[in-house]
Design brief:
195 residues; 12% strand; two-stranded antiparallel ribbon; alpha+beta; single chain; three-stranded antiparallel β-sheet; 5 helices; 2 domains; extended
Length: 195
Amino acid sequence: MTEQPTYGPITPANMPRLADLNDDTAPYPCQITVFCDECGDEVTADYLVPAGSTSADRLEIARKHLRRHGWSCSGAGDYCPNCGLMRTRYAIAEYAPILGDVYAERVRQITKFGEQHRKDGTGGPVMQHKADEARACCEYLAKHGGADWRAVLLEEVFEAMAEDDPVKLRAELVQSAAVCVAWVEDIDSRAGAPS
């Protein structure tokens, strides 16, 4: 049985054989450079990548490797260890008031109701249909003047309600919570808004 190749930085253990370089389905070497979006530092390395991988797939292989070396890499950007730490500090300071309000509400809930454990109650064709409707509404509004916060939040919430996989459900709930924070930020940024 053939071993699954290890994608990532090329090492003696995963180095492609010359014969494999003529096989269109075999992993191949690829040089990838990742730049820090803050200071411009760059890291260039040779990686083993899967055949048929997209540029986004190859970038994610490099990012995965760099995360192990202290880089902060996501759809929001790539930041070297020094810049990533500074951005984290700025983000914590920026979001502290809103997240403090969320924390205070959680304390109030725990005080009133205690620790709660319930079934998820998500998934199924009805919730999938509602998620599809919410997505279509948001897309329609985006094409006709811009989606409002209500539409964006409902799309995220209904996508969460449609999930029966706990890992995907958790990710959708985090996205819903992030939209709520963004909405509160927008309210707080308006002139004369309560804080």
